[in-house]
Amino acid sequence: MEKIEFNYPEAKRLITKRAHVGVVGSGDMEVLLEPNSEEGARVFITTSVNGFGNAWKAVFDRFFSKFDGAVRIYINDAGATPGSVLLRLEQAVEVIEQ
Amino acid sequence: MSEQVGLRGKAWFKALTGSDTSNNGDPNSVLTTTAAVGNESALFLCVVRDKDSRFPCVRDGQVGLEEAFTLATHVRAVIAEDRDKPRPAKRPIIAIVDVKSQAYGRREETAGIFFAAATSADAYASARMAGHPVISLVAGHAFSGGFLTHGYQANRILAFDDAGITIHAMHKEAAARITRRSVAELEKLGHEIAPMSYDVRDYAKLGLLFKLLHADDPRHPTSNEVAEVRRAITEAIADARKGKLDLNNRWESDAAKETRKGTLAVRAALEAQWFNE
Amino acid sequence: MNTPVLISDFVNRKSFIELDARARAQSLFDEGTYKELVGPFDRIESPWLAKQGIAPQSDDGCIVIKGKIGGSPAVAIAFEGAFQGGSVGEVSGAKMTAALDLAAKDSEAGKSTAAVLLLETGGVRLQEANLGLAAVAEIISSALVLRRHAPVITIVAGTVGCFGGMSLVAGVSSYTIMTREARLGLNGPEVIEQESGIDEFDSSDRALIWAIHGGEQRVGMGLADSLVEDDADKIAAAVRDSVHKGVPDKHRTEQVELYRARIAALDTSSQIDPATLRQQWANPKGVVR
Description:
The structure holds 3 protein chains of 3 kinds. Chain A is an alpha+beta fold. Chain A has helices at 53-66, 82-97, and strands spanning 2-8, 19-21, 29-35, 41-47, 71-77. In chain A, strands 1-4-5-3-2 form a 5-stranded mixed beta sheet, with helices on one face. Chain C has one domain (13-288): 2-enoyl-CoA Hydratase, Chain A, domain 1 (Alpha-Beta Complex), CATH 3.90.226. Chain C is built from 11 helices and 8 strands. An 8-stranded mixed beta sheet of chain C has the order 1-2-3-4-5-6-7-8.
């Protein structure tokens, strides 16, 4: 198991809602997305699969190139592929932007 | 080890009650009798091996259909007999526990062993809630569904402190297979993670035990050891009578405050949110 | 339109089994009356899984929802079968016990509060072994306290089924609702095959598994109460009926003599035929929807 953190200080848009999607089942993950009390966005990942820090970094760099909300994102992961990670993140964004 | 399951239970049943035969109409695998403890009489119950049981999957000391319904019958009889007595006069119920597991058999599943086990757990819990002190003495193995059926509803749990005691959700070999670890890894992990441990001294850290007891050779108790165990049972009975009827003592104990922080956090948060409408 | 009614019913029904635990629990409540307690944002996770290199889940796979069912106060506690097989850990178990205790507290104070347990579980979580087993004993105790005042209703819908220690919780329930896709038993077929050999139980024999553990059999032999189609509306209706029925005069686990005599009458010289047993124990009160 590995814990990974990222900061995206440029993401400053005020967010008021929160979202929870997904289950920590095999090949899947859960995302909790909530307003950050400070400026910028922070990401906290707990994953059962070690050694994929760069892949996570790439996914979140891509995600925050389009999304600018000041949020805290918590992820519990049981081996989701980068594709399903992005899908879960998009589902979470859909909930808070409704 | 497995050849010994049930022998320690039987030895202690005999030492404490003077009897080691089952009642007429009961299967040979269930011993019950009324015997003195302290200055009162108590109901003692024990599940033992019956090599000739008509249910093949209980012959090594597992708890099956007949065992569960027989235990429930005797416990409920005492509840009914003492129904109108005040709490201090309700008879203590002493479960001597040395059970390999629940029965792993097709006959048992077909006839609903889950329900038989529930019936026995209900009887023990009902006795406790009616004010009977229910005391478990873990004299050997207390595994999984076997312990849930016989002993785990007690107000107070006593156990011996030696390597022959195992209280667990699953035996080592099966747990190793399912969690994809070697038995050696599992044993090592047990010392770091108390709920995983097969060592009764780690189990004691969970806050579920009233007291650990000692006997040099638990299969052959000396008269001093028997007297010591009687004293511990009497003490457990007195403590149970002073306490609440529920199982809250298990997570309110000092040891639980250290090891069951998760339980306590959940209970506090849920209570706060429940009444906040 | 001349589409046969049966087919349109089948197409229009909303599968309950396909819902996750949270959506299942929500689907039982009256619109706009419910809220989740100690949800994912409280982030009370298993303290034991991470120590063993396993990612936890923010609700530990147990969802607690409080609200009204058919106008009556109720709490639903649902195990998520997709997380660690719906297993009982310290936190998930404590959630169920605490919710049952609070429902009992309200009920004793005159506000009868039913509990609905949605059980998709293989039993105790082996990574939390002894605290999982202890939690099961505590859940049983708390369910027994509540059921004196308000009904405790278990739903086993599938596809995990309800096995291990939690099957005793189903056993002590006031009412058990099952689908044909659900299974209920103490030991699953794989466990029996492993412990007692393939001659005792061939876990690849699907027909045998369903004949013994399946919902139709359990309701037919009287160890569960309602057999309901995999349809969220029908399951919600069955739950409302059970809430309204209230506490039964006598719970099944109090009928020790009846069942002890039935076990005494079994011929154990060979395996017991499930269909014959169902006829012998036939459950005239079983409801089929």
